[in-house]
Amino acid sequence: MNIPAIFDDEMKEIVESFIVETKELLEKLDNDLVELEKRPEDLEILNAIFRYVHTIKGTSSFIGFEQMSELAHRFEDVLNKLRKGELKVRSDIMDVMLEAHDLLKVLLSKLEKKDLTPIEIENVILKLEKIARGEVINRDEEATVEGEKFSTVNDGADVLQKVGSKVIDKTIRIDVERLDELINLVGELVLGRNRLMQIISGVVEKFEGEAATRELIDTVSQIEYLTSELQTVVMRARMLPIARVFNKFPRMVRDLAREMNKKVELLIYGEETEVDKSVIEYIYDPLVHIIRNAIDHGIESPEERIKVGKPEKGKIILKAEHEGNYIVITVEDDGRGIDPDKIRKRAIEKNLITEQEAMSISDKDILNFIFIPGFSTASKVTNVSGRGVGLDVVKANIMKLNGIIDLQSTPGVGTKFILKLPLTLAIIQGLLVGVAGEIFIIPLSSVVEVVRVKPDQVHSIKGREIIRLRDSILPLVRLEEIFNLKSNDHREKRNFYIVVLGLAEKKIGLVVDALIGQKEVVIKSLGSYLKNVKGIAGATILGDGTVRLIIDVAQVFKMSAKNSLDFIKL
């Protein structure tokens, strides 16, 4: 191949279009191959797969990408015989076709990096040729890429994204930094709108009834509407369908279940739900670990499931939906569930808690110990689990997003993980609260609920203020103590509010003097000089022109923990 020719100026646009289109085709191919294995007689799926591979073969040949063209050609031969009924879909055929698909992804990734050094594809080509001749492939035969075993069970590093539109003419590429600049300007506009709305309320009070006032109100209302519309459009520009993440899991579930000799069905709902790009970047790894754990720890073997009266095929449900300004992602399995007594025993063995403490912690709260780094109940170490690595990654990534994890599990019935995340991180809904004469803003995405409390409901355990909230103990945090604010009121003599905050799997109660209201706010950096102020995520300008600080919920959780053990148990 004439390598320089494929990257010269004349070919640049063609190659870029090829990469974009082929990524989309490979994404569809991945999903349809898994579906074909479930419905081997479905000719419509088979024809779609054939079209994808045929297109890849033709376009790669046109640009002179010979290795991809050759591999796609042999792949097409097998698919053609399947279409004609000369071959029937078997597990060995599916394995080889999936290997071929993975090699196509590797080749495309190398092209994107402008690296066209040949890789080893002969092994897979030989398998495709054998299948086309009607031979059966031994399952022990493994594909190799550049001398290394090629595995797709945990191919998190190979992230091939799905594009929006088939019609390349209707799309343009925009640098993310430019989009961020646009969002920042819209943020400034929102601040200006809020200030204008505050001013107009004062003008109306003073000059109510005058014609100029009515015109001013109409104009300001129009500006408010247009600003909101512009904000919505710009924010949607950064929104991507969650399918970008969800579409990677059918293949992963298929391969991992096969490796562990289990039967697992993955059901996906709400893949069209959109979320900010910055949020999408953080949720792939958590979902990988949750789903892998569901297959390894949750779903029983077919024999075990039949013994307990369950269908031999386990079920995992992956679901996304909007809930206000949040996205809620649920991962649910119908496996063996999590035994809280087993968690207690393991926590005692690792000296995380005493036997007496273990008995005082509720079953729901004890489940949260699985998020501790290094914590594992697995009896042996495997390629999938047993090293105590996994769910701590889930917790870390959800904390970065100021999200909330809710874990529900019933032994013998199954387990459900519920992840509640903000749709976007740039412009947030905030709860304004009064503390010691100051006003702070709490990101609403971290607020679970607000309760009014009487002084006699507050108790102290080991020097820590707590309240009993339904069936749980809720530790309290006072912002005036964290930020060294002076308070002159006597709260012990009157009722006050507790803002219940959730971060990952933990909850604390923030003691506040007053609830002022809810507002849409733009997070502004404090600059290099003040950027390291603990407990503060940034600032915003309210409609009255005052600058107010936005609470960093993750930092407040850390600052409120007297020691690491307290933080783990809370």
UniProtKB/TrEMBL annotation:
Keyword Transferase: yes
PROSITE patterns, A to Z: CHEW, HIS_KIN, HPT
Domain spans labelled HPt: 7-111
Any one cellular-component term (Gene Ontology): cytoplasm
GO terms, molecular function: phosphorelay sensor kinase activity
Record keywords: Coiled coil, Kinase, Phosphoprotein, Transferase
Domain CheW-like: 427-562
Catalytic activity: ATP + protein L-histidine = ADP + protein N-phospho-L-histidine
CDD domains hit by this protein: CheA_reg, HATPase_CheA-like, HPT
Modified residues (Phosphohistidine): H54
Record's keyword annotation contains Nucleus: no
Coiled coil: 19-46
Name of a matching Pfam family: HATPase_c
EC number(s) on file: 2.7.13.3
UniProt record, GO biological process: chemotaxis
Annotated Histidine kinase domain residues: 214-425
Record's protein name: histidine kinase
